[in-house]
Records
---
Amino acid sequence: MNKGRLFIVSGPSGSGKDTILAELFKICPEIKFSISSITRDMRENEIPGEKYNFISKEQFENMIKHDELLEYNRFVGNYYGTPKEPVIKAIEDGCDIIVEVDVNGAAQIRKEVPDCTSIFILPPSLETLKVRLKGRGTESDDKINARLSCALDEIKRAEEYDYIVVNDNLFESVSELCNIIKLDRLKTDRNINLIEKILNE
Ligand code: 5GP
């Protein structure tokens, strides 16, 4: 059986990556999503176990100690990490899996799983990003400013990614991300068994 592929999706908070991913999973329900473990407080609209598992700092540090994370990072005072086991299992089972992490997490994953594809979601402008972050109304001005400063640092590292999707229009962004994933499935190294099958007939 062919192995699955790990896709990394990053983008500053407010870039709209969550909305793009939610739409993508409607079109491609066969793609798995890696649920991160995080220590920040749950927002009102969040459901535990959907995008994140909300755990304590002690639980998180225990996961680090037992080498249970593929990568982790601290972001605005909280831990965010990708549990290793579900990702490895999806790839071994031949499923494509999307991991949504920040730029530091992405760099760690590329070292662990070099055979992955990374996509950076850019906002159309910094102004749009500011408006989106303020519009959420879920965080204090200090936290919003901290997120904006992280956003600039993240955008500086967008060059490390294989693909850039500019989230100007939701429909187009979803279809671009979908195209990247579909094209990746046609890569020769993912289809060696098809060639071998014909040669062995
Ligand atoms: P938020 O608090 O807005 O949900 O996420 C903040 C940042 O953490 C976003 O840039 C998001 O991509 C990133 N993030 C989410 N999950 C993970 C993870 O498992 N690992 C790392 N390194 N970053 C994550």
---
Amino acid sequence: MLNIILFGAPGSGKGTQSDFIVKKYGLQHLSTGDVLRSEIKSGSELGKEIDSIISKGNLVPDHKMIHIIAHYLDTLPNDCKGVIFDGYPRTVEQAEALTLLLERRNMEAVMIDLAVDEDEVIKRLLNRGKTSGRADDNFETIKKRIKIYHEVTKPVCGYYLKRHNYFLINGNYSMEDTFAQVDTILSLINKN
Ligand code: ADP
């Protein structure tokens, strides 16, 4: 199994790169942001709770996220070639939980970190906000999401670096040129 954690700031291109990877490698794509937004759309009580968290740019509590991931792993098809985790883990606690959940299934995950300059990230998110309809794609909330990213999420890199499961690439380039770097790493890992 080829399990990839696509990591990076909001707007670093995790979703876009996931689409490229799915096309070439046939992996399952788990975007926790998409899962949460579909819960909001359903209008459930949980969805309302999540909405009030996300629209303020805050993180959904770890225990809720870990529950979502555990459920997702339980429902993977038997012929699954691997998973792209897009938007998870966002805290060290989430990373530790993922390690346990994967170990129980004799699996592990490799992190690919998309490094993108802050100016570029803000530009992309403001641009996306014109059409995304996402309540969190406005300047105030973007700033808050980036702050939380640096304070709470960024340390997750260290967790994977220590485990020697970490690759850093430059995500400032075009989608295609960024994917060329991702692809080089994936073809290398896929061989082993
Ligand atoms: P982006 O990476 O562009 O900020 P996402 O679609 O990945 O967007 O996530 C949107 C929001 O969903 C986050 O700002 C956060 O509120 C919530 N979220 C997504 N994944 C997680 C997670 N693993 N832990 C906590 N909250 C999450």
---
Amino acid sequence: MGEFDLIKRFFTRDPALTPQPATVALGIGDDCAVLSPTPGAQWLISTDMLVEGRHFLSTVAPDRLGHKALAVNLSDLAACGATPRAFTLALALPRADELFLEGFARGLFALADAHGIALVGGDTTAGPLNICITVMGEAPAGAALLRSGAQPGDDLYVSGTLGDARLALEAFRGTVQLSGEDFETARRAMEQPQPRVALGQALRGVATSAIDVSDGFAGDLGHVLKRSKLGATVQADALPRGPALLKQPLALQRLCTLAGGDDYELIFSAPASAREAVQSASAASGTPVTRVGQLDAEPGLRLIDAQGQVLPELPAGFDHFKASA
Ligand code: ADP
Ligand code: MG
């Protein structure tokens, strides 16, 4: 199978069966895709690359990989409150493995269709497995949620639950033992994250800042603090966790929620006067949100326990957990 057969067979879809957003004037097949902006909107564009061994394990099922490659990109649009419109796909493949491509495309397009986003172009080459997606979305001019907008005194929230992806990674590494059911839950969180696109859009005009959690809660919150020139106080044990993680020792729970990564939940800030509006956004998008702390004028991230005692430092790594568990 040649390059063009491969693109046609796996990545070009029948326009009659897959309606495209009105913004897509021309998709795959020419030298460029042509997109028509919605009047009054701005484009929001983000790129994420997934490299085998670094961002995913070779054991992942191809359909879950297709899902995740797009999900991590949609999560960036979600963090900015954008409406997804189109994406491109640059693929390096060791060989044209039909079984792999069929599964990959299935997972990719299932998520694309769920969000009404069209594949409009890309590039295909032989090489070590590498997946690079660029997503394009729109938001009303000036309405995008940014990292820089948080204000002192704002409430701090996080969506969904944190830490399951890291828990799965530790299970794969053999550092924790999970029941079959807990392992499946954690593995699904790692391999099939659900980008919080509806929540991000519902938070336009409500949240003052937002970011998605890709590298871990503490690190990603740190980006907001830096860009907003603020600090934060966070109740470490108020960070939302699922049932599998709640069964683990507290030190491991803290490690996974604070420093886990790969969560693709949203951290966002909003003034206390917007608490009802935040609840409405949560309900409208069907996404649970938890208030976990507040923004302070004083720089730095302060973690406190349920008694209000300041925790000495962030969990540094798994050995640290072992020593203190
Ligand atoms: P060019 O050489 O002009 O860059 P290519 O031969 O690389 O064009 O690609 C032909 C068409 O197929 C282009 O419209 C390109 O965007 C599209 N394409 C290539 N690879 C992919 C892919 N993996 N997914 C979607 N579209 C692709
Ligand atoms: Mg090309």
---
Amino acid sequence: MTTVYLDNNATTRTDPRVVAAMLPCFTDMFGNPSSPHAFGQGVAEAVRGARRRVRALLGARHDQEILFVSGGTEADNTALLSAVATAPEGRREIITSAVEHPAILATLVHLERSCGVRVHLIGVDGRGRLDLDAFYAALGPRTALVSVMWANNETGTLFPVGDLARAAHAAGALFHTDAVQAAGRIPVDLSTTEIDFLSLSGHKLHGPKGIGVLFVRKGIPFRPLILGGHQERGRRAGTENVAAIVGLGVAAEIAVMGMAGEGASIASKRDRLERALTALVPGCQVNGDTAARLPNTLNLAFDCVDGEALQSHLGRAGIAVSTGAACASGSSEPSHVLKAMALPVWALMGAIRLSLSRETTDAEIDRVIALLPPIVARLREMSPLWNDRRRLYPTVRTA
Ligand code: PLP
């Protein structure tokens, strides 16, 4: 039985064209890009090519604005620590959202404890949208940095980062966005925004793991996180992960080529899945902002169903989904994202995330539509709560 992979927000399959481009880096192209001889210089040229491709994906103006790092987590850490280290006197506050990835939230806890930075955690509404009144109330002359994600990893909800960046600049603050889930999936054009820092990760766009990018706008003060050699113009020490950089470059180029058609095609499959499941299964709701969402993400909650049990039954039926970031990390705590949305308990506990990619087929969507409703019906029959709740709903139908 082949498995239907609907966990692309956790990671994507490395594109075979990416793998093919990386392989020579383990054989003939083994040189160190810092070496002046031919072995090094050929490899340095490959790194330059990858930088140009990532620049094109992001619409950045200058190659030197693209800093290769080890992934989304390092990019996020570097942006926050650098902004605090270089902030002018009197700017000791950071504004962020309550639904950021732990790569942001844990770094901010560290900065609060170690540097006395004050963090404003801005809440979201029931659809995961930022509380703009609270955001503008927190923004002021003491703000050093605003960091708000482009797209949420659990619900796919998109944030108005262009507007937020403009507001941050008007208040004299810098702006960072974690675009790990957005880059390669929806158009990102940094030439038309005032974003100062942007994080992306190779493995979310069919590139390799262990590679990412921090975009640092030219002229923005910067303090490296990793110290040592002069690589990356002295901004990130350590011999470059050449194979992964080359792979990310190819992944970025493929994403640019597919951007126009793929988003719509993925969204139409996701929407068909959403329409079918919400029609077949009563007591099921979509978590997130359906009006402004990543094209590939569907977060669904089922009343009287435990999300982890549903994930495990789907797994046995050959369908790989996620219950959300917290559960994926081995904790059974409900996700901090869904909690911040103040959803009813059943929608927190009964949520699963289905995330598609350009590789998802119509036949796979059909299989999920056929298999998921009867699994939900079986799990509900086992739930002690279901006897009281079932009166509220018509019976689960099957496709
Ligand atoms: N930020 C977001 C929104 C993510 O979804 C992830 C990974 O899931 C990260 C950051 C971390 O990226 P990486 O796995 O490359 O460290």
